[in-house]
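Entry 14. Ran structure prediction on the chain below.
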Amino acid sequence: VWAGGVDTLGNLYDPIEVTVGDTTQPALRRLLAGRDRTDTIPLPPCTGYTAPTYRFPRGSTWVPYTQPMYQDLDPRGYTWCADPRTVAIKQFRLGDTTPRRTFSAAVTPPLVSPAERDTAIVEVQAFAAKVGGGSPDFGLIPQTKPVLQRIDTDDGGQVWVQIEDERGLQALVFDSL
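Output, structure tokens:
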């Protein structure tokens, strides 16, 4: 699935990694609408949580019921950064490293049932068998699922946050500025 997008002016954004010293950092390649020109916009650091992974001789996979930090493009010229385990969201103007706004909500994450945990273990074991085996630490599987599912903005600027809490899928709506 392509993780890029198009802004309200018709510019195309493609997520890339750029080399900075000995490491890489996330950025966006922007193709300006109606022009044969591109530029690169660094993304703000989206830090605070590193999702654990299982590493095997010929592959790796996320630990079940974990996911990396949420980072997505807002077509109005912003980017979102959030911890998927909570509703603690930052909005950045493209190119800025200081959040334009932050918001949060208290939610109770859904539990991973014993049957879901057992199924996840079987799936990791099958993956491990395909990519060289190993002894994954199943104690890394959290007792709760990620909360944050998706962030969208409507035409009026309201922010819609899809979450999953103990009641199931929910929508939270935050006022525009």
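DSSP finds one helix and 13 strands in the chain. Will compare against last week's run tomorrow.
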